[in-house]
């Protein structure tokens, strides 16, 4: 049900940046790969052309012929895609190759939308934002208490991993306890606001700041078809 199909030959492949040059070298160099892709393109085999050009771009992302043909190939795949999500990915990839990274067009910053998130969803978002190497030596226990929900969560950060449990507050074992008037205040705290009204912090405030310091902010301008 996941990415591994049971074939051990696909269990531990090289990452794309290391795999692509090996394929390109085996096929006779990047110019030869582009020639093969051109043949596939002219034959209407756009899926094979895209596979070849993906390796070419991850070998030399500035290769003019590879970029041009790859953009044309993705565009053709987009034209043929009935699924809107697939079509958008194909056309976005073609745009990136032709005009550069254009970033994410929309951001999820609506207060009304974010307020619909559960505490668990917010904590999950924080957990995947933790920079593991930077937080490896931290050992933190943080209680988050919601007055409007009459509930408490214990956040534990150890070995670069943030986990949480819905348990009773225990100031004796928590480094810091954060009491929030409402769930919406958690969003402000996650953004680094630990001074405004609506929250009460007791214990070691530096523990909370240590957690906030190792949260990576998402980058909306990531590449999708180039290294």
TrEMBL record:
Key words of the record: Hydrolase, Metal-binding, Zinc
Top-rank taxon, per record: Bacteria
Every Alkyl sulfatase dimerisation domain range: 1-100
InterPro entries: Alkyl/aryl-sulf_dimr_sf, Alkyl_sulf_C, Alkyl_sulf_dimr, Bact_Alkyl/Aryl-Sulfatase, RibonucZ/Hydroxyglut_hydro, SCP2_sterol-bd_dom_sf
Pfam families, per database record: Alkyl_sulf_C, Alkyl_sulf_dimr
Cleaved signal peptide residues: none
Start and end residues of each Alkyl sulfatase C-terminal domain: 108-227
Family annotation (Gene3D superfamilies): Alkyl sulfatase, dimerisation domain (1.25.40.880), SCP2 sterol-binding domain (3.30.1050.10)
Protein name, as recorded: Alkyl sulfatase
Organism: Mycobacterium stomatepiae
């Amino acid at each position: 049900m996941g990415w591994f199909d049971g074939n051990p030959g696909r269990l531990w492949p090289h990452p794309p940046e290391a795999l692509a040059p090996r394929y390109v070298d085996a096929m006779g160099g990047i110019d030869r790969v582009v020639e093969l892709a051109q043949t596939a393109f002219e034959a209407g085999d756009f899926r094979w052309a895209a596979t070849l050009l993906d390796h070419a771009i991850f070998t030399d992302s500035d290769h003019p012929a590879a970029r041009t043909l790859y953009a044309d190939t993705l565009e053709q795949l987009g034209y043929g895609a009935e699924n809107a999500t697939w079509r958008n990915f194909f056309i976005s990839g073609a745009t990136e190759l032709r005009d550069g990274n254009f970033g994410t067009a929309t951001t999820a910053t609506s207060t009304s939308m974010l307020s619909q998130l559960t505490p668990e969803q917010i904590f999950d978002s924080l957990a995947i934002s933790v920079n593991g190497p930077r937080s490896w030596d931290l050992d933190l226990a943080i209680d988050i208490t919601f007055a409007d929900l009459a509930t408490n969560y214990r956040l534990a950060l150890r070995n670069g991993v943030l986990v949480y449990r819905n348990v009773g507050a225990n100031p004796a074992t928590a480094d810091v306890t954060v009491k929030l008037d409402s769930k919406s205040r958690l969003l402000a705290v996650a953004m680094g606001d630990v001074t405004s009204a609506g929250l009460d912090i007791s214990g070691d405030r530096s523990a909370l700041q240590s957690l906030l310091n190792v949260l990576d902010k998402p980058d909306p301008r990531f590449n999708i078809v180039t290294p």
